[in-house]
């Protein structure tokens, strides 16, 4: 049974139209510069093209990184050692953070770079009651050429605007958010990612919350944007690959007409119970399925890929499509698809040519490919897990072993795609000047 929140198919068009008009009206007030292109040309997910029937109100102040006010810490924090419990705790942040406040009466205030520390919220804050919160996941890399890099950061900033739009938070020019992220990385990067730690990274978490203290169920009139840098241990080095537990009929992550395409907190909180049970049973992530057909969507918080041979003998790289907006349009997902189309279409060294396919596919198709010996490999892809091979899927009471390549650690396609991405992120293998690598000039 689908949850009560699922909108009947015949009503989804009207709901989508209401949402689209609401998004446009919010942008008119908070970020009118983003209405120049209805589809947000720099965005990952396109906004519906609409035309307002209302007069455009006087615009409020937009987010402006050039107004940044800076206060440096007088109590610097120690940098944890690589491999230490502190590094793996995901609780240690760098010395500084970015903040910017917004109100419905004045718009965006001047952003600040300030010492890292707690936030002040009223117990009635909207984000604490109505999940008016969204975020992004990015990384700052210390390259083997000693440079600091971001990976396709404009896509993350554009996607965050899509997420804020979906949950009634204020809009902003994505380029201004990027400038603030770069400033924080430039400020703390040299200390927290020293040049002797080449090949390491910090996790970047841009977040926006509704800080409105009114308890009513309504569009928030106050919001807070903040950006932090966090120490994070690598998650993709799994011996034997990821073990996935396929979701059951009583579990659902997202549905058509919902908000699965946005990176909002409401996508993650409800999944934690199932995720905890999966880990207690020895699995790393939930493989989220949708509908009676058991369509494959995501693996935990990662996009999911299979490489299989069709019955006609063609090798395909397949992942769920974005048509119904159930699946997150991941930056790593987008990059894997682009590299596969560019570099694997005609084959590569000992790898056969690959056809890249984005479509709905079911768990039954995966099982058939395994039973018939046609499944070549599978992997998850996302910022946190990076490119993580899958070694086992438990579905309907049975374990299905996924091929892991000759070395038993990774399939060949996942390995080569991962190596290409690492080259761009860390400036190796002739990828030092790749357009996806955004070099940060550290202070």
UniProtKB/TrEMBL annotation:
<keyword id="KW-0032">Aminotransferase</keyword>
<keyword id="KW-0100">Branched-chain amino acid biosynthesis</keyword>
<dbReference type="InterPro" id="IPR001544">
    <property type="entry name" value="Aminotrans_IV"/>
</dbReference>
<protein>
    <recommendedName>
        <fullName>Branched-chain-amino-acid aminotransferase</fullName>
        <ecNumber>2.6.1.42</ecNumber>
    </recommendedName>
</protein>
<dbReference type="InterPro" id="IPR005786">
    <property type="entry name" value="B_amino_transII"/>
</dbReference>
<feature type="modified residue" description="N6-(pyridoxal phosphate)lysine">
    <location>
        <position position="263"/>
    </location>
</feature>
<comment type="similarity">
    <text>Belongs to the class-IV pyridoxal-phosphate-dependent aminotransferase family.</text>
</comment>
<dbReference type="GO" id="GO:0005739">
    <property type="term" value="C:mitochondrion"/>
</dbReference>
<dbReference type="InterPro" id="IPR043131">
    <property type="entry name" value="BCAT-like_N"/>
</dbReference>
<keyword id="KW-0028">Amino-acid biosynthesis</keyword>
<dbReference type="InterPro" id="IPR018300">
    <property type="entry name" value="Aminotrans_IV_CS"/>
</dbReference>
<dbReference type="GO" id="GO:0004084">
    <property type="term" value="F:branched-chain-amino-acid transaminase activity"/>
</dbReference>
<dbReference type="InterPro" id="IPR033939">
    <property type="entry name" value="BCAT_family"/>
</dbReference>
<dbReference type="Pfam" id="PF01063">
    <property type="entry name" value="Aminotran_4"/>
</dbReference>
<dbReference type="GO" id="GO:0009098">
    <property type="term" value="P:L-leucine biosynthetic process"/>
</dbReference>
<dbReference type="GO" id="GO:0009099">
    <property type="term" value="P:L-valine biosynthetic process"/>
</dbReference>
<dbReference type="InterPro" id="IPR036038">
    <property type="entry name" value="Aminotransferase-like"/>
</dbReference>
<keyword id="KW-0663">Pyridoxal phosphate</keyword>
<keyword id="KW-0808">Transferase</keyword>
<dbReference type="InterPro" id="IPR043132">
    <property type="entry name" value="BCAT-like_C"/>
</dbReference>
């Amino acid at each position: 049974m689908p949850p009560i929140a699922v909108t009947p198919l015949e009503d989804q068009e009207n709901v989508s139209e209401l949402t689209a008009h609401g998004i446009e009206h919010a942008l008119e007030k908070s970020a009118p510069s983003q209405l120049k292109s209805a589809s947000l040309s720099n965005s990952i997910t396109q906004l519906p093209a609409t035309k307002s029937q209302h007069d455009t109100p006087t615009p409020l102040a937009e987010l402006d990184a050039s107004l940044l006010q800076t206060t440096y810490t007088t109590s610097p924090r120690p940098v944890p050692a690589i491999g230490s419990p502190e590094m793996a705790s995901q609780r240690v942040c760098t010395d500084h953070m970015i903040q910017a406040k917004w109100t419905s009466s004045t718009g965006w205030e001047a952003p600040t770079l300030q010492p890292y520390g707690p936030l002040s919220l009223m117990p009635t804050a909207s984000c604490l009651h109505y999940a008016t919160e969204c975020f992004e996941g990015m990384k700052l890399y210390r390259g083997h050429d000693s440079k600091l890099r971001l990976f396709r950061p404009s896509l993350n900033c554009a996607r965050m605007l899509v997420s804020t739009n979906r949950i009634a938070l204020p809009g902003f020019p994505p380029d201004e958010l990027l400038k603030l992220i770069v400033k924080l990385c430039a400020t703390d990067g040299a200390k927290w990612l020293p040049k002797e730690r080449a090949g390491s990274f910090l996790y970047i978490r841009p977040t926006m919350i509704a800080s409105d203290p009114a308890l009513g169920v309504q569009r928030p009139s106050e919001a807070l944007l903040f950006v932090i840098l966090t120490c994070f241990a690598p998650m993709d080095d799994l011996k034997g690959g990821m073990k996935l537990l396929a979701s059951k009929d009583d579990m659902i992550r997202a549905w058509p007409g919902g908000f699965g395409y946005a990176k909002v907190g409401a996508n993650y909180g409800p999944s934690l119970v199932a995720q905890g049970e999966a880990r207690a049973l020895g699995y790393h992530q939930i493989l989220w399925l949708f509908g009676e057909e058991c369509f494959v969507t995501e693996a935990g918080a990662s996009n999911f890929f299979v490489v299989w041979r069709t019955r006609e003998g063609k090798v395909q790289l397949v992942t769920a499509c974005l048509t119904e907006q159930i699946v997150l349009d991941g930056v790593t997902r987008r990059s894997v698809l682009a590299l596969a189309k560019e570099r694997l279409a005609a084959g590569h060294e000992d790898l056969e040519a690959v056809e890249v396919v984005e479509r709905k596919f079911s768990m039954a198709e995966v099982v058939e490919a395994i039973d018939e010996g046609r499944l070549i490999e599978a992997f998850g892809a996302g910022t946190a897990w990076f490119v993580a091979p899958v070694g086992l899927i438990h579905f309907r009471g049975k374990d299905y072993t996924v091929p892991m390549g000759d070395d038993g650690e990774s399939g060949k396609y996942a390995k080569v795609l991962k190596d290409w991405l690492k080259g761009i992120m860390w400036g190796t293998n002739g990828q030092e000047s790749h357009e996806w690598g955004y070099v940060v000039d550290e202070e």
